[in-house]
Amino acid sequence: MGISRILIANRGEIALRIHRAAHEMGIETVAVHSTADADAMHVRLADHAVCIGPPPATDSYLNVANIISAAEVSQADAIHPGYGFLSENAKFAEIVEAHDIAWIGPKPEHIRTMGDKVAAKKTAGALGLPLVPGSDGAVETVEQGRAIADEIGYPVIIKAASGGGGRGMKVCESEDQLETLMKQAGSEAKAAFGDATVYIEKYLGDPRHIEFQVFGDGNGGAIHLGERDCSLQRRHQKVFEEAPSPVLGEDDRMRMGEICAQAMRDMAYRGAGTIEFLWENGEFYFIEMNTRLQVEHPVTEAITGVDLVREQIRIAEGRPLSITQDEIEFKGHAIECRINAEDPWTFAPSPGEVTHYHAAGGMHVRVDSGLYAGYRIPPYYDSMIAKLIVYGRTREGCMMRLKRALEEMVVEGVKTSIPLHQELLQQDDVKSGNYSIKWLEEWLKTRE
Ligand code: ADP
């Protein structure tokens, strides 16, 4: 089934990214936006625009009834959810499909399973993925928690089954803290996600975060597109991502990538997905699977030449994967910097009017952003305003180009995280790729 008009159920840079892929395929776009986003770049560029509500996301970007009405009124025949908002909402995916609108995403049942981290871990284990040692499922009582923690050894991490975005996690160093932290984790999870279910896993000492990009055709065919290293994080949120990982060799990549791809074949997974692992002492430990496009997908596009959004749209049309595993070649190195409207050192949000804007350019430099001079960054949403993605034949060359590109970026009127990235690039550990998920926060402490 060919798609002729895609409704983009998102905002910001990812809405623009989807619009671009659609237009390159000759497909029309419908932007849906809150009143705060009427002037957004993707709204201006889209073929049609529908206002779906006031600024708070619950009234607009999460408003299922209004989004479905907008799709009907504008006669969209497909919906792309981007990332965040409704992208991993299985119910929404079902409603879209029930309206005979193509859902540019995985099968609802797979979104549901992977969205519950306890179920996701069980599924991943059954599919042969290596797991972080921990509870077999939900931990219901403190006694159960104690027994598991004794078995795997402290420190442990208590996680929310419905968690996401790095929220709802508690590290527990010793038995005397367990009861309090389990209760806290449960009530925080209940408040944030409406589900108090928690589980426990071993807290790894100093791992890296390495994730594999996978793609399934929905009929038992699947490929992997290698890994991304997203270890530079603050509060479990990614700041800087690269592909390939500086620590993985070709053998590890192909071995682990094939395990992931096989798991997707066994599930008959459809569309784009990311399987996230922690990596320590040469071992991989599955933590979760994201059933959507990731923020950092462009680094994979840069080293493989595959347009992942185009591929998503093709799969939603019922077409086969455009590329076989054997045809995928990993070439060179790519790095992405997430640029946020915030103070680079206190991380306090800095919304407001962008008075001057100039995007970096030149060979192998990509800026995904809806910014323009005169644009007002609304205070209601995520603070990420741009992604700078740079490619080089070698990691060293990529770092040099990134430094040059950051010098060219001009965003005035608001504070941004550009100075943070500039300083990061000067650190020996970043230059050599010698960092774990703890590195960034420890380095920030030394700067205080
Ligand atoms: P979320 O869905 O909230 O992003 P994840 O399970 O993906 O949660 O974990 C996010 C981050 O938290 C990881 O990238 C890692 O930095 C840290 N983390 C999660 N589980 C563990 C663990 N068992 N040991 C150490 N760090 C962990």
Summarize the structure.
With 448 residues, the protein is an alpha+beta fold. It has helices at residues 12-24, 41-45, 64-74, 90-98, 108-115, 117-126, 142-152, 175-193, 250-267, 297-304, 308-316, 395-408, 418-424, 428-432, 439-447, and strands at residues 5-8, 28-34, 48-53, 78-80, 102-103, 156-160, 169-172, 198-202, 208-217, 222-234, 237-243, 270-280, 283-290, 333-340, 352-353, 356-358, 365-369, 376-377, 384-392, 410-412. Helix 4 (90-98) links the parallel strand 4 (78-80) and strand 5.
Polypeptide structure, described:
- The structure is a single chain.
- The chain contains 15 helices and 20 strands.
- By secondary structure, it is α+β, with helices and mostly antiparallel strands.
- An eight-stranded antiparallel sheet has the order 13-12-9-10-11-14-19-17, with helices on both faces.
- Helix 4 (90-98) runs antiparallel to helix 5 (108-115).
- The mean pLDDT is 97.
- It binds adenosine-5'-diphosphate.
- Adenosine-5'-diphosphate (ADP) binds at residues 132, 157, 163-167, 201-204, 207, 209, 233, 236, 276, 278, 287-288, 437.
Structure characteristics:
20 strands; 448 residues; binds adenosine-5'-diphosphate; globular; eight-stranded antiparallel β-sheet; five-stranded parallel β-sheet; 15 helices; alpha+beta
Mean pLDDT: 97
Largest sheet: 8 strands, antiparallel
The percent of residues in helical segments reads 25-40%
Shape: globular
Contiguous low-pLDDT stretches (5 residues minimum) are: none
Strand content: 25-35%
